[in-house]
Amino acid sequence: MDSPKFASHRTGVIVSVAGLLKYLEEEDTAKIDSTLKRLARIHRNWKVRPEQVD
């Protein structure tokens, strides 16, 4: 079972990638840049513990 923090990170990634695809279609470079920064921040904060891996 996922911890709340792990599920929150996963949800953040899914929402960010969905937004990124939309912004790529619209060619909105400011939003693309901020979304990539958000994904990088999520990646830096991502800590997988052994109990989270099946």
Q: Mind explaining what this structure looks like?
A:
The chain has 54 residues and is mainly alpha-helical. The chain has one domain (4-45). 74% of the residues lie in helices and 0% in strands. The chain is built from two helices and no strands. α1 (4-26) runs antiparallel to α2. The radius of gyration is 13 Å and the shape is elongated. The chain starts with a helix and ends in a 9-residue tail after the last helix.
Considering DSSP H and I runs of 4 or more, what fraction of the residues is helical? over 70%
Number of domains: 1
What is the structural class?
A: mainly alpha
Query: What is the overall number of helices?
Result: 2
Q: Output the helix-strand order.
A: HH
Strand content: under 5%
End-to-end Cα distance, whole Å, is: 9 Å
Principal-axis shape equals: elongated
Number of strands: 0
Q: What integer value in Å does the Rg equal?
A: 13 Å
Major sheet: size, sense and barrel closure?
A: none
What is the mean predicted local confidence, pLDDT? 78
Unreliable runs, pLDDT <50, ≥5 residues? none
What is the topology?
Elements: H1 4-26, H2 29-45
Helix pairs in contact: 1-2
